[in-house]
Amino acid sequence: MPPVETAGPRRMRADARQNVDALLDAAKDVFAESGVDAPVRAIAERAGVGVGTLYRHFPQRSDLISAVFRREMDACVDAALEIEAAYPPGEALDRWIMRYTQFVAAKRGLAAALHSGDAAYEPLAVSFSTRLVPTLNRLLESARAAGERIAPVAPGEFLGAVADLCHSGPRSSAEASARAERMVGLLLAGLRA
Amino acid sequence: MPPVETAGPRRMRADARQNVDALLDAAKDVFAESGVDAPVRAIAERAGVGVGTLYRHFPQRSDLISAVFRREMDACVDAALEIEAAYPPGEALDRWIMRYTQFVAAKRGLAAALHSGDAAYEPLAVSFSTRLVPTLNRLLESARAAGERIAPVAPGEFLGAVADLCHSGPRSSAEASARAERMVGLLLAGLRA
DNA sequence: AGCAGTAGCGGAACATTGTTCCGCTTAGCC
DNA sequence: GGCTAAGCGGAACAATGTTCCGCTACTGCT
Hints:
Two copies of one chain form a homodimer. By secondary structure, chain A is mostly helical. The first copy, chain A, contains nine helices and no strands. Chain A has two domains: 46 residues, Arc Repressor Mutant, subunit A; 123 residues, Tetracycline Repressor, domain 2 (Orthogonal Bundle), CATH 1.10.357.10. In chain A, helix 4 runs antiparallel to helix 5, helix 4 runs parallel beside helix 7 and helix 5 runs antiparallel to helix 9. The N and C termini of chain A lie far apart (51 Å). The N terminus of chain A is likely disordered. Chains A and B meet through helix 8 and helix 9 of A and helix 8 and helix 9 of B. Chains A, B: Keywords: DNA-binding, Transcription, Transcription regulation. Chains A, B: GO terms for molecular function: DNA-binding transcription factor activity; transcription cis-regulatory region binding. Chains A, B: Pfam families: TetR_C_43, TetR_N.
């Protein structure tokens, strides 16, 4: 049984689709409030369904996490286009990295999920590799083409490192956010050393 | 009831002291194998005691973690003395940071504990602030005194960032270790930009 | 509209793990 | 050797993840 809807041979029943949507909404809220380790029952309850229904659509917690985070990830990728249009290559790189920093900081648990190595997070890792990594790669190449001296670095590795630096404490405070940005800034400086 | 032995008014019974030692040894092994989230029962069993005994000496999981990690932390601090004696200030800084990197990478969960913000990890945070932070501070000042241009940075923040970058996957592979060192290197380069 | 078949639902039941409690054991002291 | 309480072990309870299955009601067909 494929999780959620993988373009299966048959259409999904209408009520089932509604439940999936309700679960995604509920999960987004609960994750934001209590982190990705929140009790499964809390999500099911907020969505107004039984735990069985949750497990039917998202056999693994990671499936739910992946689904919730993927949307936000896409928004971050799209932001790159706007930034590239508005700023010269070097500055665009910095600006997008900061945009990405904020994105990761807002989604507690994303960083941990990303390189947990757990095969269950494959969908997230795939989105990461096919969307975010090429985006950074493009920005790096543009900056290099514009004459900037930028250390050779694997884009995926760099993005992973930035995500690590966004590990904030229990509550994402302004202080933690500032700290993350300072350290990411240091990493960016290192890229140009 | 104070955890472990806090210079209480009365001596601890000899068998109790043995159990504490057995627990610390067991916990060190189990943490290394399965991470700091390993089941409490596994630790108690390996130590050959009941869970009640474990809870008597370490009411919180964090007490056990703190006790286990503190020893290793001290070893890392001591290493700085040797390194400072053997290398010029600038190189000593880099070498010690790498030593610290290896230390953190080996202790999965240390980074998370360090800035979890959880008050329970206070003992660890104290050791961190009183031992590691001054060590880095000394190394930074020495390097600056030797004429190196080093960005102003809070030592604690920097050490926290390095710890974050050591977040390896499930198994601490040579690959993950190499990745961590590359990114820490980038951060060090940023320090001198 | 009415019906049959099945996708999907709900939640009880089970498994794992953290945490507490208390009767029994035994080290430390005289 | 005997007294006393520090300390022990593990049963019992609580929270949470996961599975399973009888029942419901949506969909497609006529």
